[in-house]
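pasting for ref. prot 1 ->
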Amino acid sequence: MSARDYLAVAGRVRMGLNELRKVVRRTEHIWTTGKLAGDDWYADAAALNLHGFYAGVERLLEIIAEAVDEARPLGGDWHQALLSQMASEIPGARPPVLSATTRAHLDRYRGFRHVVRNVYTFNLDVQQIELLVMLLPHAAAEIDADLTAFADWLERVVADECAEG
């Protein structure tokens, strides 16, 4: 992978993190506003945004898997395998992208993503949605820190290569 490719991945990760921050703020706003209004629409909207949050994270991890690892998991369990791959170091190639704690948080949102895609909204568990909304700021901060550190690492690799060459 070229230095330009590393910089492109770092840039896409940083841009994606900005989008994720917007989704987090939007989810919190929807939840708070909806609860105050007493309407039930807020649970559906929050669920959709939680789904969008995880999907956004997963897109960033796929970019890293394809561009840096040059290997993206396949098969029926590829969503879980992607999280495992990103939490693993590839000796001589890259450090872990995600900490074990971040991976565990993401696994919870991964599972919820599956539920949102496979049930009618009126069957969603509002208590589960509330729990995920309440955990979201902490989980998002961990994801932000891990992916920012990885983007920093990519940029350092390029800077080191330029300094040597």
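and prot 2 ->
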Amino acid sequence: MTTLRALIAAFLVVATFGLSVAKLPPAAPLDDKAKAAAEEKKAKDAATAEAAKAAQARAEDRVAARYIAEQKAKGRMISPQMGSSAMAAASPAATVKGAAPTAAPAKK
């Protein structure tokens, strides 16, 4: 009996929610001032995200340089492997469309 009551209560909640959402008026179109404010906010958010991305890259470079220096002090030679973004920045030919990727020589 309690399962039936729970099902009826859930149905009533869903039906009430559906009716209330259906009665809401459609969103009003934005005026020119609101559009300009939205574009400005979008540009500001993009600039903030770009600054955060640059700060993250600088932090990663500092950590990698510190690690390499520590390993060199211990006498271990480290050959850092560059990520996809560093490789693209180092090799502009890799970003050109139609350019054949360079393959590493096969080990025998």
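The two ends are 74 Å apart (CA to CA).
The CA atoms of residues 68 and 80 lie 8 Å apart.
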